[in-house]
Structure formats: C-alpha cells, structure tokens
C-alpha cells in the first residue's frame, strides 16, 4: 500500500513532490483509515474482518474497490464506517487522518464525511461532529509538535439516497464556522439527482454555507446540471463526465478543434472547480480504465479549474503526492503545472478570501524555491 511516508519525486525534475505544500479538497474521512486502526477498533467492538494482518487488509480494500462500478466500490465502506460509531473511534480516525495528511505535505485539507452514518452506537448528530472536530484539532496540534503546519475543515455530507438532507443541512448551519466549512451530498449518484435535496440546498443558501456536490462520476451531464442549478454547487465532486460535453475534432496538420457544450462552457467560464480524483475515477469506471484515457489533461489544457484529489486513500492505496506523480508521469507535467493545480485548489477552497490568499502565497514561495 502506498502511504504518506512514501516519497514521490517529480519525473525528470528532481524536486520532491512529497515535500511541496499541497491542498486537499476531496478526501473522505471514512476512506482514509489506517489498516491497523481498523483492526484495533474492530477488535474493540467484536467486528470480524477479512484478515487481521494490516498489509493484507490494505490489499483487500484495494482489490474490493477495483470492481469497476461505484456501487460495488462503496461497499468497502461498510467496514470502515462500522468502526467509526463511538466517540473514541471517531476521535482516533480524525486525529490520524490529519497526521497522515501532514506527513504528505498537505497544508490545508477539507475532510468530508456523512454524520448520519455514525449514529448506531447512540451518539447524536451534533456529538459525532464534535468528536470528529476534537480529533482533527488534536491532529493539528500533534502535527505542529512535529514541525508540520496544517489547517483542516469539515465538509458534512448528506447521503443523497436517504431522506435526511434538511437535517444534515441544519447540522452544517449549526456548526458552520466552528470547524465545518461546507456541505456535500454523496452516495449512489445514478437516480438520485441533487434536485431531491432542493429544500436542503435552499436552507444552505439562505445561511451562506458553501456547497460542493458529487456529480458526473456515475451519472451523466444531467447530474452535473442538477448539482449546478439545484444544488448551487461552487465545486463539482469528480465531474469527470463534463468531458461528454466537449467535442474534439482533428484538423489534420492544424491540430485539434474543440467546441464546448453549454454545461462545459458554464463550468469553465465561471471557473467552477472540478475535484478530479484520477485513481478513484479509474477504479469506479467513471471514465476509462487507463490514466491515458482520463480527460484530466484535456480539461487542464482547455483552461478548466482542475484540482487533484485522492477521494479515498485507503481504497485507492494512494496519497495526494502519488496522484500528482502519476499525472506528471503520464502527461509530462512539470513543477509549474503541479503548482497550478495547488493554486486552483487554494482558490476553490471554502476558506475566507484572506486565508485563501495566504495559502496561495505559501504555494508560490515553496514551488519557486523547489
């Protein structure tokens, strides 16, 4: 399994991608557990696992996740969510999550998760949010003690196939500015458009809580349209299928002629960030089976605000540094390209403007020195 301790060097460039400051926008709390932590917490609650060997368990998660469909991919979360039902379990997972981000050079991370999935042991929605916040703050403090400065925020996800959208939106409003930076909807996408949660999105808009929406991963352009217009999304989670609205035609020696459809044009012109997660997108067959098939480079070259993300580090056996390395290796990106991806993410984060500017300055200085 690849982890934050692995160092990734820019192909042909010598710079350490791992050491450079990075911004993580799309990273699921229940998809980033350490295998040994799962084993420890499972033992405490009497949960049977496929194996109690950490390395073998890591391999099991990756193998299961490589099913080729989002629905099967999501089944691996039955295990991780099961060990995240107590205050102590949530605290530990959140604390270690931050430490792993910091070890990978992340200086700002938005941590998304669905509180409604962590109530089986009797905790309330507010209690689970508070437990995660305590763990995140402990992780930030422990990282600082190790000389690593990191800032994190929660994104509260409502499960799009459930009927608790307004309840989770109200939860986000209550905790907004107290550790929670925004709102998301997640889960099975096909058949569950953002319009089903219209009342929740109205509530969030009235209370100035920013929104990102999973869309264009397992469903078509209509899902992205619903995220934009029903969800008022400021970012699109994955959004890889926006490429369906881009027509490319070869012009012999003239190169490529590209036309954008209305959805793609809207997203590009308004610089709505795409939270692309290449390894995860390939696992769920969101677009192709090889990285060379992924439209990341097309979107980047056309001027879309692309960001690089891990989605679920455990299921994809990855880290943000590894994702950047794979893209650089496949598409020939250099240091300036990797810097642009971080600048895109900083600009699209749900932080106040002054804080976004601080992140941008950190990125510019560090990449110039690399």
TrEMBL record:
GO terms for cellular component: cytosol. It is an enzyme of class 3 (hydrolase). It holds the Pfam family A_deaminase. Its cofactor is Zn(2+). InterPro entries: A_deaminase_dom, Ado/ade_deaminase, Metal_Hydrolase. GO terms for molecular function: adenosine deaminase activity; metal ion binding. Keywords: Hydrolase, Metal-binding, Nucleotide metabolism, Zinc. Residues 21-363 form the Adenosine deaminase domain. Its EC number is 3.5.4.4. Gene3D superfamilies: Metal-dependent hydrolases. One of its GO terms (biological process) is adenosine catabolic process. Belongs to the metallo-dependent hydrolases superfamily. Adenosine and AMP deaminases family. This is adenosine deaminase. It comes from Conyzicola lurida.
